[in-house]
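Hi R.,

Here's the chain you asked about this morning:
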Amino acid sequence: MKQTTKYTNQPIGTFGGFRHYVNTATGQYIVAGKGGANKKQLKSNPKLIRSLENSDEWKIVGKWSHQIRMSMSDIIHLAFGDYTAGLNQFAKNLQKMDVESLKGYRLIETSKFKPLLTSINFNIRHPFNKVLVRIPDVITDSQRKTITLNIPGFRACNEIIWPKPYHYFRFSLQIGQISDYIWNESERTYDQQYPDIEHHRVVVRSEWIDRLAGIFDLSLTASFPDEYLPVENATVVVALGIEIGTNETPGTISFKKGDGTMALVACL
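And here is the predicted structure, written out as tokens:
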């Protein structure tokens, strides 16, 4: 059961057996019930075997989505809307691509489908490909330790499409790592192949640049420290964030939440 009304400062949280939350994309206040069979019922009723399989697999879907967010946590403030639902759906699709494991034990092997991750939309208000006209060039070394992002001959007033006037912009290059999820038979649970790898991340930011700065070669380089050198099956994520700034007060640059966007531009 779900009820939706306009948000007017109603309480948020879980109480009375219902979840109370706000959809940031629509501004709607949502009250949703927690229905369905409990864990004991799922395990004891043969008719619910498919539900049990989905329940077990869904646990790892949420952990995979959390891993993605953590690997880009320095620029995730540039995401907008219920992008987590999109992450969860993407993770479930990856899980379905495992045709070798039995249902209920299917893996999430990101390393086999790296290019697909760049299709994820993290900002429903300002989709990245609607803001930045050109696709950046991404260059890496053989170890995937150092990542360079280039946009030669960049001209902001032509290549950043923003719905309202602005004065400044700033780019942030975030590199991180994510792990495949595998089934641990002895523990009867899913594990990261490389635990806590999502904390191996680095961010590099440009200076604030005037939108009328003219044509220049944009280049950002980020490197993992030696102790974070990517292992063979780890997926290196390359994300780019764009922040939009104004000078509401002379001599200062102001950034407001929502004024920007981000995306995965490469997965290596």
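One quick note: The first strand starts at residue 2 and ends at 6.

Cheers,
M.
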